[in-house]
Amino acid sequence: MDALVWTHAMELGNPAIDAAHRDLFNEMRRLASAPDSELEQGTALLAERLERDFREEEDLMFEAADPGVKAHLEEHARILAALHHVETGNVADAREAVRLLSLWFQAHLETMDRALVHGKDNHASL
User: Which residues form the Hemerythrin-like domain (predicted)?
Assistant: First the structure.
């Protein structure tokens, strides 16, 4: 998947968030070319990692009193539900889920996450 290339332009300016995003992105890239035998477990671990990272991001939303928190939370929930819905043993669905997740992730990062970080930066107490 040529689209899975992390670039400096994807960074949001928050070192902790950028590191988490880069790690998730690299894991999606790895899974995109992982052998079938590793895909099911890798997808499950990716879902766990996303849940953890989403919780941390959601904590920031509440701390920053982000006005877009409801839509952001709903988007996180939809993505996790879709990822958990991938049928066990269905390699084709798992591969497609990773592909679609990587596309979603890039769009989400540029819209909702960028707005969150810029809003957070405007709160001196954070």
Answer: 16-116
